[in-house]
């Protein structure tokens, strides 16, 4: 599986609190109890998915998942600084838990860095969020999610377009070890901003500070579509 999102942490990695905040933003008309139910299901599904992927990888089947996350998705607080910090901590835990999960960060050049190399063919990721799935042998499918609908396609031209977009994103992203360091930095940044904010609560509710550890190289990707696409409602992702 290969997944990119420019604005959010992918659904299978979301904490319950982060998922609740996303759902309130995407569909504020849902009753609070329904948002809580859906968020809990999403979080539980993500934990189950991660455990199965780890077991598959440890069983030498080599099934892995890659995620490209834009730096903005790490810095933009969803729900609150504390919720965002806990969410980044969850991503770090998943990366450290198993080599089957790979996260790289798309970090655009600083606005005042005129020496940075420009992107090869414009800014990657303008195609929007997407998932490329290995469904059977060499066959692939593309999964797209929007606020009103989801799209699942195996048309060769669609798969080729998004596979190329993925290659551009990966080439423009930081390495796994560099991304691991950025995740740690952004976690600490959210913690500092939470502590200094005057109206966000007591710092004791923050996750514990983590110790840095670099990531390892990644093996070949492969994940069946059935293990990812389990939601019928577009907001339940």
Structure, described:
This protein is an alpha/beta fold. The chain has six helices and six strands; from the N terminus they run E-H-H-E-H-H-E-E-E-E-H-H. A six-stranded mixed β-sheet has the order 3-2-1-4-5-6, sandwiched between helices. Strand 5 and strand 6 (150-153) form a beta hairpin. Helix 1 packs across helix 2 (32-58) and helix 4 (81-97) packs antiparallel against helix 6. It is globular. Mean pLDDT is 79; it is low at 199-204 and 211-237. Residues 2-185 form the DUF5753 domain. This is DUF5753 domain-containing protein. Residues 196-237 are annotated as: Disordered. It comes from Yinghuangia soli.
Structure characteristics:
single chain; 237 residues; alpha/beta; 41% helix; disordered C terminus
Offer a quick outline of the entry:
With 237 residues, this protein is of the alpha/beta class. Helices cover 41% and strands 14% of the residues.
Unreliable parts:
199-204, 211-237
What coarse outline follows from CA principal-axis ratios?
globular
Spatial strand sequence of the major β-sheet: 3-2-1-4-5-6
Q: Over the alpha carbons, how many angstroms does the gyration radius reach?
A: 18 Å
Number of helices: 6
**Which H/E pattern describes the elements?**
EHHEHHEEEEHH
Q: How large a portion of the residues is in β-strands, by DSSP E?
A: 5-15%
Question: Main β-sheet: number of strands, strand sense, barrel status?
Answer: 6 strands, mixed
Number of strands: 6
Count of spatially separate domains: 1
Structural class: alpha/beta
What is the straight-line distance between the termini?
15 Å
| Average pLDDT, all residues | 79
Helical fraction: 40-55%
InterPro entries: DUF5753
Organism: Yinghuangia soli
Region (Disordered): 196-237
Protein name: DUF5753 domain-containing protein
